[in-house]
């Protein structure tokens, strides 16, 4: 593994340092992950659950008290809001990303993650849908190393063995070849020496103006339905 800081082109590359507000949101997301896990696993009495609900409602009121038009999620960088490795996203594990420059022309991307019970499918093991999505994230980052990133066109997963919870899973992805706008990538997921799954993902490179159009087209400022 390279000891150099990981830098990614396009939407994976952060231009600015994290602000004090960003760090506060990272701390909030950390506690939210703890709340998600604890509430999911808790065997507390109904009275304790009701008390917790009241505390959560108060927390929502605190976060809404100074609400202004716009969205912190829309203004944050993709690396911070990613649903898999974004430190500001309470839904992320978060996966720890890295880069191995010794692989192929562009290098490989690695992602280390420990899945817990909220991600469970088969008893004691990760749901296959999360594994597929993790591959999409890792290989999406790998294809961006070409400097001409695009969007997922086709994702194919072969599951080799069940992926256990509470165990470090190493995802690895790299660019296999490029054919015009098509970027062909491959990836693996291992539990130690055990191969859990393999992936082949086709990405379709997009011109910068298309990415700008997607950014402008989203509306993250809309309020969720009541």
From TrEMBL:
Gene3D superfamilies listed in its UniProt record: Hotdog Thioesterase
Keyword terms, alphabetized: Apoptosis, Cell membrane, Cell projection, Cytoplasm, Fatty acid metabolism, Hydrolase, Lipid metabolism, Membrane, Mitochondrion, Mitochondrion inner membrane, Transit peptide
Positions of the Thioesterase domain: 124-194
UniProt membrane topology term: Peripheral membrane protein
EC number from the UniProt entry: 3.1.2.2
Reactions listed under catalytic activity: octanoyl-CoA + H2O = octanoate + CoA + H(+); decanoyl-CoA + H2O = decanoate + CoA + H(+); (9Z)-octadecenoyl-CoA + H2O = (9Z)-octadecenoate + CoA + H(+); hexadecanoyl-CoA + H2O = hexadecanoate + CoA + H(+)
InterPro entries: HotDog_dom_sf, THEM4/THEM5_acyl-CoA_thioest, Thioestr_dom
Location of the protein in the cell: Cell projection, Ruffle membrane; Cytoplasm; Mitochondrion inner membrane; Mitochondrion intermembrane space
Annotated GO biological process: apoptotic process; fatty acid metabolic process
Signal peptide limits: none
One Gene Ontology cellular component annotation held by this UniProt entry: mitochondrial inner membrane
Pfam families: 4HBT
GO molecular function term, any single one: hydrolase activity
Family label: Belongs to the THEM4/THEM5 thioesterase family.
PANTHER family: ACYL-COENZYME A THIOESTERASE THEM4
Name this polypeptide is given: Acyl-coenzyme A thioesterase THEM4
Annotated organism of origin: freshwater metagenome
Highest classification ranks of the organism: unclassified sequences, metagenomes, ecological metagenomes
């Amino acid at each position: 593994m390279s000891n150099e800081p990981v830098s990614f082109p396009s939407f994976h590359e952060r231009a600015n340092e994290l602000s004090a507000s960003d760090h506060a949101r990272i701390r909030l997301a950390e506690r939210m992950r703890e709340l998600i896990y604890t509430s999911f696993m808790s065997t507390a009495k109904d009275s304790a659950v009701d008390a917790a609900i009241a505390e959560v409602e108060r927390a929502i009121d605190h976060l809404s008290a100074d609400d202004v038009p716009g969205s912190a999620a829309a203004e944050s960088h993709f690396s911070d809001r990613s649903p898999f490795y974004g430190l500001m996203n309470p839904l992320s594990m978060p996966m720890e990303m890295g880069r191995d420059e010794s692989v192929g022309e562009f290098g490989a991307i690695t992602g280390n993650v420990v899945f817990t019970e909220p991600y469970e499918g088969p008893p004691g093991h990760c749901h296959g849908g999360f594994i597929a999505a993790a591959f999409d994230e890792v290989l999406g980052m790998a294809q961006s190393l070409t400097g001409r990133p695009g969007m997922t066109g086709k994702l194919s997963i072969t599951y080799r063995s069940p992926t256990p919870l509470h165990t470090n899973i190493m995802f690895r992805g790299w660019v296999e070849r490029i054919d015009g706008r098509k970027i062909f990538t491959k990836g693996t997921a291992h539990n130690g020496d055990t191969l859990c799954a393999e992936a082949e993902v086709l990405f379709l490179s997009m011109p910068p103006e298309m990415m700008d159009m997607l950014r402008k087209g989203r509306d993250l400022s809309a309020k969720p339905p009541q």
